[in-house]
């Protein structure tokens, strides 16, 4: 087994990284190993100057800050693994610094806009798929969960009596999130009036099913959101529902710590961007409404 295959296993089973993260890290590390081959360096010679030269080359080729930051994260995880496995005498990872990123504010639907989009129905909608789309959109907005988390839900994860859903987040961290009445009603409609029409042997215990009866895939779930919002006349994406749920919670008086737990963020720094959104909205309202603004 190659060192990258062993590292893939480490990322997936020991660190609990998502498939998306694993693919990104491995792609970066293949590029690093190719750079080592080109320069005649061995894996055991991996050090800070060598990695910086590789990053500098990528920067000159037009790599974005986010790409460089991901490459640094991939190398840090890799060198730590190599050092643990005895393939690298010293871990240079802690001395590598990622470029600072200018984080753009997330796209957030207005509360009225979200309400209109979620309440929209079409007389031409027939069959189980539109019912599923509505349930997917309602649940994403109600809980702020990620699309991948939604697709991984099983029937047992929904607690109708407690009005909660159990979610397995990044790093295999479990959290319980409350679900509002509109989302529960949409789920009831899906579970009783639509899901049975799609059931097959492949369905098992998945909460949401695809057209062929298997577990709903992330790509199709994203298309469900786009399709529902598009019919409602709203230009939005799945992650916009997550951003909107978090921002609307803060606007409604929720504290940052509560929103952090709600979203499943490991660090409050990831949640603080939503306070910036709220401040921007407050500033816009102030400028429009205050006579001395």
UniProtKB/TrEMBL annotation:
Function statement: Site-specific tyrosine recombinase, which acts by catalyzing the cutting and rejoining of the recombining DNA molecules. The XerC-XerD complex is essential to convert dimers of the bacterial chromosome into monomers to permit their segregation at cell division. It also contributes to the segregational stability of plasmids.
HAMAP family: Recomb_XerC_XerD (MF_01808)
Cited InterPro entries: CB, DNA_brk_join_enz, Integrase-like_cat_sf, Integrase_catalytic, Integrase_recombinase_N, Integrase_SAM-like_N, Tyrosine_recombinase_XerC/XerD, Tyrosine_recombinase_XerCD
Major location category of this protein: cytoplasm
Pfam families referenced in this protein's UniProt entry, alphabetically: Phage_int_SAM_1, Phage_integrase
Family recorded in the similarity comment: Belongs to the 'phage' integrase family. XerC subfamily.
Gene label: xerC
Keyword NADP set for record: no
SUPFAM superfamilies membership: DNA breaking-rejoining enzymes
Localization in the cell: Cytoplasm
Gene3D superfamilies named in the record: 1.10.150.130, Intergrase catalytic core
Keywords assigned: Cell cycle, Cell division, Chromosome partition, Cytoplasm, DNA integration, DNA recombination, DNA-binding
Subunit organization: Forms a cyclic heterotetrameric complex composed of two molecules of XerC and two molecules of XerD.
Positions annotated as active site in the UniProt record: 146, 170, 239, 242, 265, 274 (o-(3'-phospho-dna)-tyrosine intermediate)
Domain Core-binding (CB): 1-83
Domain of life: Bacteria
The protein, known as: Tyrosine recombinase XerC
Domain Tyr recombinase: 104-287
């Amino acid at each position: 087994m190659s060192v990258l295959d062993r590292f893939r296993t480490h990322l997936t089973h020991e660190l609990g990284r998502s498939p998306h993260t694993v693919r990104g890290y491995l792609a970066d590390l293949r590029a690093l190993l190719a750079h080592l081959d080109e320069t005649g360096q061995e894996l055991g010679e991996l050090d800070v100057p060598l990695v910086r030269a590789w990053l500098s080359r990528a920067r000159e080729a037009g790599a974005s800050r986010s790409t460089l930051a991901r490459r640094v994260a991939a190398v840090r995880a890799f060198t730590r693994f190599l050092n643990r496995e005895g393939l690298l005498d010293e871990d240079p990872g802690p001395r590598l610094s990622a470029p600072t990123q200018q984080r753009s504010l997330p796209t957030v639907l207005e509360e009225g806009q979200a309400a209109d989009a979620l309440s929209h129905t079409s007389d031409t909608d027939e069959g189980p798929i539109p019912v599923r789309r509505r349930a997917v959109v309602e649940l994403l907005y109600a809980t702020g969960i990620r699309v991948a988390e939604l697709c991984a839900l099983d029937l047992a994860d929904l607690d109708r009596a407690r009005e909660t859903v159990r979610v397995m987040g990044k790093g295999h961290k479990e959290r319980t999130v409350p679900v509002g009445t509109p989302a529960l009603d949409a789920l009831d409609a899906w579970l009783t009036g639509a899901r049975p029409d799609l059931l097959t042997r492949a369905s098992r215990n998945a909460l949401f099913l695809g057209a062929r009866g298997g577990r709903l895939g992330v790509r199709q779930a994203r298309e469900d959101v786009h399709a529902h919002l598009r019919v409602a006349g709203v230009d939005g994406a799945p992650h916009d529902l997550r951003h909107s749920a978090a921002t609307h919670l803060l606007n409604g008086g929720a504290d940052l710590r509560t929103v952090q737990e709600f979203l499943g963020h490991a660090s409050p720094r990831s949640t603080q961007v939503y306070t910036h959104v709220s401040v921007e909205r407050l500033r816009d309202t102030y400028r429009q409404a205050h006579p001395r603004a």
